[in-house]
Design brief:
heterodimer; A: mainly alpha; 9 helices; 0% strand; globular; B: 244 residues; 77% helix
Chain lengths: 218, 244
């Protein structure tokens, strides 16, 4: 399992692996927004949390179809299916690798990009914590979506259509937590809900993803 | 009394639904005509909302059926996963477009009602938002059915999507509640009488709800039959080709 994780990370970070693509996309979204809404500092400060969350979510979405598609095409997914590792574990590892190569860099980049959006000083910690808690759920849900569309030739667009509604609760609680943090309100409830969603998806969705993968490999 | 699973046989299903379909259709038309005409022309205007209150006869039943259609798809998907009856998967497939239309009717009538009453076509109210999300779920479900060529694979994948989607739809419903307190009034109907709308509106509303339920059943029967026949036709064409 660790070998699989290391292999996926290596594949993602080497040339052509798409590592950094998500980060660059995140950067571009954040840079483009002030052009769209105007450079007023107070306006940007108010919507900074939303932009950071939406940007992270879209950047995450961008790299989802790589989770299984390449392995499906070259047949390594078939080998993994016959390997002694259960399919559920494969799904978790793939999601974890996706998070380490996409979600975690986004979390680390968020405070830097927050400067560009004149994020209030109280906002940095809540934004980073909410992204840290929320992005694993995004990766896991995305892995399920990627497993659903792995057999399709042009699955990318369909993948976003399927996955985006599933992202709604995570986005709501994540952004709510960060907003409350900025306003100096109590963040416990949304934080616990966000953590609950992440734990729940990690606990349950691997089974759905594995079932879907088995169907697609039939 | 034979078991309900005899209807998993496509032939038996078509025969039985053929017998019921005219009755259900007639019932749907009768209930809708009674409910809508009674509601539109023979109930008083509300003292605050004026005549706009009458959109309730379309709005409430369609919203109800939009959710019930998804529940029916969920049950059908479970039956497909557990017992692998093709009719069940096809019924889920047949119900989805009907559910989308119901969702759209509910959203559209709500917007038309909201413009004079709330002064806006759209507000990010929990109920409105969760219906919009439900609409997206329907779209994804239908798109997945359309995208996959192999029938059994499509049935498997969509039913798992339906299960996962149900959980997330429910989660979104409560998350949205947390996110924004709403404009929307409380339930128009509930089992404890206290909360109900006044009786003058209530009785025609029951008729139009019954009409929508029968309409939904008739449409699902019809569409399922069509799916079964289309699949049978494809099988016949393939068999024909094999002969040559």
């Amino acid at each position: 399992m660790i070998a699989l994780l290391m292999r996926d990370i290596r594949l993602a970070t080497r040339a052509g692996g798409g590592f950094g693509l998500g980060l660059a996309f995140f950067l571009i979204v954040v840079v483009l927004v002030p052009f769209g809404v105007g450079p007023q500092t107070d306006l940007l400060a108010r919507i900074a949390v939303g932009i950071l969350w939406i940007g992270a979510l879209l950047a995450c979405l961008l790299s989802l179809d790589r989770i299984f598609a390449l392995d499906f095409e070259d047949g390594s997914l078939d080998l993994l299916a016959t390997a002694p590792v259960p399919m559920e574990a494969v799904a978790v590892i793939k999601a974890l690798a996706h998070w380490l190569t996409t979600g975690l860099p986004l979390v680390l980049a968020a405070p830097l990009l927050g400067v560009l959006l004149s994020l209030p000083a109280d906002g940095y910690l809540p934004v980073v914590i909410s992204l840290l808690l929320g992005t694993p759920a995004l990766s896991m849900i995305g892995a399920f979506g990627a497993a659903l569309t792995v057999g399709l030739r042009r699955g990318g667009l369909l993948l976003s259509l399927l996955v985006l509604p599933l992202y709604v609760p995570t986005l709501i609680f994540g952004a709510e937590m960060a907003r409350r943090g900025i306003d100096g309100l109590d963040t416990t409830t949304p934080m616990l809900m966000l953590a609950g969603i992440t734990c729940g998806t990690i606990a349950l969705l691997p089974f759905a993803a594995a079932a879907v993968l088995r169907v697609n490999l039939r | 009394m034979s078991s309900i699973w005899v209807y998993a046989n496509p032939k038996k299903f078509i025969d039985t639904t053929d017998r019921f379909l005219p009755w259900v259709s007639v019932l749907a038309v009768v209930c809708l005509v009674i409910g809508l005409i009674w509601g539109f022309f023979f109930t008083p205007d509300d003292y605050r909302q004026g005549s706009t209150v009458k959109i309730i006869y379309l709005h409430v039943p369609s919203a109800l059926m939009a959710i019930n259609a998804w529940l029916m798809m969920l049950v059908a998907s479970l039956i497909w996963i557990v017992r692998r009856h093709h009719v069940s998967a096809l019924a889920a497939r047949a119900a989805a477009p009907v559910g989308v239309v119901m969702t759209l009717i509910a959203l559209a009538t709500g917007a038309i009602w909201g413009q004079p009453m709330w002064g806006t076509w759209w507000a990010w109210d929990p109920r409105l938002t969760s219906f919009l999300i439900l609409f997206l779920f329907y779209l994804g479900y239908i798109a997945l059915w359309e995208a996959i060529e192999d029938d059994d694979t499509a049935a498997d994948l969509t039913s798992i999507l339906c299960l996962v989607g149900s959980v997330f739809a429910l989660l979104s419903r409560y998350a949205v509640n947390f996110w924004n307190q709403g404009l929307h009034q409380g339930a128009s109907l509930s089992l404890d009488k206290e909360e109900n709308v006044a009786d003058v509106f209530y009785h025609p509303l029951l008729f139009s709800i019954a009409g929508f339920v029968f309409l939904f059943i008739a449409l699902v029967f019809l569409r399922t039959q069509t799916e079964i026949r289309a699949r049978r036709m494809r099988a016949l064409i393939v068999r024909d080709r094999m002969k040559d």
